[in-house]
Description:
By secondary structure, the chain is an alpha/beta fold. It has a single domain, classed as NAD(P)-binding Rossmann-like Domain (Rossmann fold), CATH 3.40.50.720. It contains eight helices and seven strands, in the order βαβαβαβαβαβαβαα. It has helices at residues 13-24, 36-43, 60-74, 96-126, 148-167, 201-213, 223-233, 237-245; strands at residues 4-8, 28-32, 50-53, 79-82, 130-135, 173-180, 218-221. A seven-stranded parallel β-sheet has the order 3-2-1-4-5-6-7, with helices on both faces. Helix 1 crosses helix 6 (201-213) and helix 3 runs parallel beside helix 4.
Amino acid sequence: MFRNAVITGACGGLGQALARLLIGQGAHVALVGMNTSALNDLAALAPERCRVYTPDVSDALAMQAMGADWLQHHGTPDLVIANAGVAGGFDTAESTDLAVMRRMLEINLLGVASTFHPFLRAMRDSGQGGALVGVASVAGWRGMPGNGAYCASKAGLIAYLQSLRAELRPTRLTVHTISPGYLRTALTAGNTFAMPGLLGPDEAASALLQGLVQGREHIVLPRRIGWLSKALSLLPARLHDRILLGQPRKPRAGQAGATPIPGLPPSSSSPP
Length: 272
């Protein structure tokens, strides 16, 4: 059981569910996100064990300040979950979408390293062990039409976590890659295509924490979506691409059903 946790994206569906579970288990929890109201509601469940932070996860200095404050008031965490992430459609032919890709990489990839950095040295030096968790996606296993920015950010995250895991093998720290399929959250609310294996955030959070306790380094939520993705990957690339091209695409920034991307320049929010 974890006693001291830091969660980014704690105001989202999966993040909120993880926070509630950990708070309910008696853990001290740093709640990091952009929705102050939602974070305050979570903190109210155990005010003496929670603290609210609202930095941009891609802002290394702001994340370092958050980490220093948490270490000072609650000590070294034994669990850091880098869950903050954004999603959206992408079209390389549209110049405004290049800003979308840049922002997605900043949050989904750089934001994970910026989340781990303030705590890594303290966790390693404590000798008590701990878990560093990055929430990637099965979308990082293979690129999908119209989703290049998101797929690239998650593929990069998977590689980064592999590297960090290897580096930390000699220590008592573990690194875990989470690859959700489709979760019933704000990030998928605007999707108009089929979402096999759609999983609720509470069920996903419970499975995630159970997998961590079991020591699983790669956790797919739900497992069956991983099997489906691997089966599709066995198809010839041309056939695989043809199947994916027949599916509706994720809305781009500014289109109906698109999820907001914090920090995106205003000109990138209105598609041509």
